[in-house]
Amino acid sequence: MSSHPRRVTRALLSVSDKSGLIDFAKALAGFGIELVSTGGTAKALKDAGLRVADVSELTGFPEMMDGRVKTLHPNVHGGLLAIRNNAEHAAAMKAHNIKAIDLLVVNLYPFEETVAKGAAYDDCIENIDIGGPAMIRAAAKNHGDVAVVVDTTDYALVLEELTKHNGMTTYETRSRLAAKAYARTAAYDAAISNWFAATLNNDAPDYRAFGGKLAQPLRYGENPHQTAAFYRTPNVRAGVATARQVQGKELSYNNINDTDAAYEVIAEFDPKRAAACVIVKHANPCGVAEGSSLLDAYKKALACDSTSAFGGIVALNRPLDAEAAKAITEIFTEVIIAPDASDEAIAIVAAKKNLRLLLAGGVPDPREKGLLVKSVAGGLLVQSRDAAVVDDMELKVVTKRAPTAAELNDLRFAFRVAKHVKSNTIVYAKDLATVGIGAGQMSRVDSARIAARKAEDAAKELGLSAPLTKGSVVASDAFFPFADGLLVAIEAGATAVIQPGGSMRDAEVIAAADQHGIAMVFTGTRHFKH
Question: Are 361 and 337 in contact, with CB atoms under 8 Å apart?
Fold first, then answer.
């Protein structure tokens, strides 16, 4: 291991992303560094008036096979891998006329971007880089002597290093760059392997890898004694990862987690159908509504549980307008996320300097496929995203009374929300708004009781003579194992129920519904969320 600075005499540059390339290469040349390059990179450098040797001059072979073979040669890899103070290596270099390469600058073929654009299979294959990862790994392994750059944002770091140390790089910097290089190739290979698995419809490949690029380090995790960071993956899905933060404090771990939860709920509500608002607290919806406008939807959502909404996350399915912005900023809110916002709305939110405003650029598709990952001790649990949508389900009426058209609309609404509430879940809804939510209880009957109690508390706060659960519908994320949870909902005033069905006691539950004259529909689809 070398702990000494190493002079850079020769650099090999081969990049697909050419942003900042010319200025960087000119600066390298200014240090007297010989430039070697390939294909399009070499052309760009020559067009800029720089003196550059083609890699074929090192290898003695022309680029061939549509550029697939150009750097896979001992004169390249020997120049990267040779340990400078190893006599045997030095002798081999001299015997085979291998020249040292002290700086490698490579960013890989844009495989992730190609896949994200929905390119054809063959185009994706052609954008799998082979020579690039091989060179990166070689240079990173030999970081005792070689510096490797895989990210254009590190150009400034390298130039600063060369300036400070008279054309040399330090071991500390080379180590940091090597670590980043290996992480980059790992993330790249993960993207490729996951693409292959998806293409082959292989839900359980023998090996599974995931990778991402740092979006931001976070001050701490769920609690101050935990470290945390936020990484973006190659999978582009509208939400917190795509959002532009217009203003407000830096997002925390909990902010990001809760904002993601809120925006996944809002995905269930088509902006073409109606304006919708979701308020989330601790990753659970505490108020959801559709309305004639964003303002109307926000007021209805807030009425469900205004106490929990304090310090919550507000998600909208349409661009934030001035009216909604004024109302939302009247109480303490951590984050507002919307597909876009008007200039007037942005100006209104600006008065609350700590309030984060995120513009996601779109609304995610609830039917889109994808993977969800959760860590457990010694392993990962990987599953497909819950892409089941109630609008696609065949609802089966199992009671003597069928729901009315209004009840059916509310039942679908309630089931959309129940999909995103931690199990066990009970959601009361009325007039396309939640009026009581029970989340994450060990028994379903307790969720039904909690949701009803919250509705009673909301009624007192609103000055209503009765809770809004009177005349509501109720959704359950999974079947009622006994009739007790249903009876609590009926006592709270529910007139119709939506649930998956499938319990050994379905007949008992249906009989209880018939006895009380309420309607019940089965979806056949469960929405557990743990």
Answer: no
